[in-house]
Amino acid sequence: MNLYPLRRVDRAASRDEALETLDAAPFVVVSTADADGMPYGVPLSFVRRGNTLYFHASSEGGHKTDCFRRDHRVCATAVTDVRAFFEGGDFSTSYRSAMAFGRIREVTDPLEFKRALVDLCMKYVPEHKRDIGRAMEAEGPHTAVWALDIDALSGKKRSLPASGMKAAESGSAAGAARPTGTAGAAGAEAEAN
């Protein structure tokens, strides 16, 4: 895979920083294309183990898994730390983003399958650690696990300017940075490009 060079090299994130962004993200958008060539992106909960991202899905399949089976090439995108700010007459956004490219595969090894589900549960509901085994027994037959083995990783970041940080810390209404939530992810990605 040939990644385009970043236009704003001053905003490039290292591989470790991109992995940190993935680890901090509550979800990723996994993008693929369907049989008609229509782009298809779906937000998914996930967990990273080493160089692999894991997702769960219904074992019954659907649009997403049909796309995965047809063309294994996918991209998973995460955006975190999104904050809009206004400084010097300009509106902008601070953010951290990561894009993981690779091939997705259905996990068939029983040990890898169980480990991925345990890791997912521990990421999202660690307070229910004792219930994981029982839930896996009940839901395991209805669950599929998919793994994205990362072939290429790209990351970008933009920090708040010092004045934006001061405004954000003071809670000032004028010029204060504020979180934009998941709705701000599109703006952050537009700003990132």
TrEMBL record:
Residues 161-193 are annotated as: Disordered. Pfam families: Pyridox_ox_2. It comes from the Bacteria. Residues 162-193 have a biased composition (Low complexity). This is Pyridoxamine 5'-phosphate oxidase family protein.
